[in-house]
Each structure stands twice: as C-alpha cells, then as structure tokens.
Design brief:
424 residues, alpha+beta, nine-stranded mixed β-sheet, six-stranded mixed β-sheet, 14 helices, 25% strand
Length: 424
Amino acid sequence: MLKSIYFIKTLLGICFLSLFISGCATKIPSVRKTSSSARSKAWKSKRAKEGKVISGPVKFSMLPSSSSEIAARRINIKSQNISSWRQLGPQIRKSIEYAGRNPSGGLALKRKDLRLTWGQLRKSLEDLERLLPRLDINPELLGRYFVWYELQSGAEMTGYYTPVIEASLIKKGPYKYPVYRVPPDLRKARPGQTHPWSEQLRKAYRVENGKILPYHSRRAIDVNKVLAGRGLEVAWLKDPVDLFYMHVQGGGVLHLPDGRLRTAVFSGTNGLSFKGLGRIMLEKGVLKRSQLSREKIKHYLLSHPERMWELMAENNSYIFFKLTRGQPLGANGKSLMSMVSLASDPALIPLGSIVAFRTDIFPKKGSPSRRVNGLGLAQDAGKAIRGARLDYYIGTGNEFKYTAHHLKKRVPVYLLISRAALRR
C-alpha cells in the first residue's frame, strides 16, 4: 500500500514537471507597488508651447550640446538695448571681482542636483569675458563653450527699477518722513560666531538692560518713533509710500530741492521678516487680487491715512541707508546695469552667475510687448526674492516705472557654466 502511494506521488510530480518545461504552466505577473509619495515626486513637463514654463520641480538639468547651441543662437543682445557683446565687459568684470573675494574652493551653490565652487563661477565669467569679441558674429559659441543647466521649473520674473524721489537733506515743509542710517545699537553676529538664540537674532539684535532682544520692528520705528530725535536721519521725503517702496527696492535716487542728486544705498536691515504690501492688503480684505497693482495700492494708502501706517507696519522688515554720489549698488557691492543685472536667491542662483532667459516686457503704457532673449548677470538679492524667482533690473529713473511694474511672468531660465570650469 505504501509503495502504491509513493508511486502515485512520483507520477504526479513527473506530470507537473513536464507541464512546466513545455510552457503550459501559468505565470502570475508581479505587481510593483508605488507609494503616493513616490508618485508625487514624478513630474511631467506641462509646457503649453515652446518657452512657456507652466510647472515643474525646482532643479537643474543639463541640456545636450546641440540644444545649447540652438538656445545660444536665439539670444539677441540688442533686445537688451546693447549694440555689441563687448559692452558687457565692464559689468562682467564687476562680477569677476565679487566672485574673487570668495574662497576659490568654497561652495557657491550646494544642491543635490548641482554643486559649484566660487572658482568655477569666476572661471566661467573670465571665459565669457574672453569670448565677447567673437559673439557678435558667432553667438552659438556660448553653447559650444558653456554647459547650459535648465531650471526645470522656470522662474517667476518680476521687474524693479531705481526710482527718483523728491527729498531734502533737512526736515522742512513737506519733507517730514525720515530716511535712517544704521543705528549704533544695532548689532550683528560676527562671521562664525554662534549664539543660543534664533536665526533672526543672529542677523540683527540689540541689548537692552542686559537682555538680548530682536531689533526694533517697522511698527516700533514708524509708528512708535523709537529712533526719532537720535540724529540718525540722513534725508527726509515728501511721500511716506515712496519711502516704503524705497525700502522694498533697497535704494533710490534722491532729487534735492536745489537740483542735486544723491543715491540712497542699502546699508543694513533690522533682520526681521519681509511681507509685501499686496499680500498684507489681500489678507486683510482691503483690496482684491485684481487691484494689487502698485499704483492702486499707493492710491488706497494715501486716500486712507488713518490706516496707512498700520498696514505698512505689518511688514516687520526695515532697511537703513547711506547717501552716496554714485550709482545704485547691488548686493555684490557693485553698480547695476540696466536690462542686464538680475536679483536672485543666492541659494538657487548665486551672485556672480551667468543666466540666460527669455521674457516679454512692456516698454510703456499702450505699447505692445517686446521679446527679450537675454543674457543676465546675477548681481543683486532681496528678502522678497526667494526660490525660483528673478527680479530684472530695468534701470534708474521714473521712466522705467511702468515697465518694471508690468513685468510678472514665469520664464525659462538657464545657468551657464563654462566647460573648462567644470573640468577643474
């Protein structure tokens, strides 16, 4: 009996083995499970048409050499009001000087998708400077000698300019709104110094009765007048809203009653967080989103003086200035160039970077838009410029106000690094 059972089992085993070998066995497909977090990281380009970036991750991806040369040929330096590539030379030299002040091996950009040293940025600028005489005839050389890193998300581009503001060096008549220099009690941590308090206090703080405190807010300075009467005023303005926006711009050109000009240059900050007037007024239900142009915001504030200071005080950030006779300066300590200089977030696009972009601007009211296929230099920064955002410097003078205020568009952006620099 036991032998019969053993014989049957052996026979069944042979049958199953033969079925498997002949391919008759049924295969069960394996199922790969995808977590929701993994799906959320995937991204598919949603470009409605060439050059229009809708969405994507904030990361850099390298263009193929052939694509870089095509993109380089599209750059039209004349769209930036420049007749020859050679005219970029002095401005590139300013970026070279800035990059050279940093350790060559130090990291200018530290990201998972791209790491660059200050030495590589400087080498890229030097290579661009040497290439300038050849670019008028052969702009595609920018694609041949440089690697183009595309920012997949693109960047929101806005515009800024240096306004010319009516001001006086003494308080008189309508000139009653003060421009303050850096107060002597504003302290900042030394490089490398650590403290047990917050990041905000490391940026700026004060000591009162032996206690370490954040520096005075805009409300304390403008509403409570804590700095008044201390001899800190360097100028006086007619218009309080112009003063607020001079803080936002980080500087301005002051037109004095006798016709002289002085430049108010960024000199320091209270280290507190920035909040734009548009956002403040939208959150409080003062204006609708469709009404958030700078002209309408200013009109509302001046028409409601009882609310004006309270609304502006919601932005804690406060800027201090010094007066010079020179041109407006960027965050790199160098003068800016109209239609070339860009303000960026240094954590994404370091100061000193070479940036290719494409945008549309409106030169004046009622005129059609004009396409700019440009090459810019990251030479400025600002508290409001964070992440995938670029602020395009339009120029100095109130004639640039319309163009600057009517530029808000997501644009394609490329970071250019010379191939020789990457071999270092």
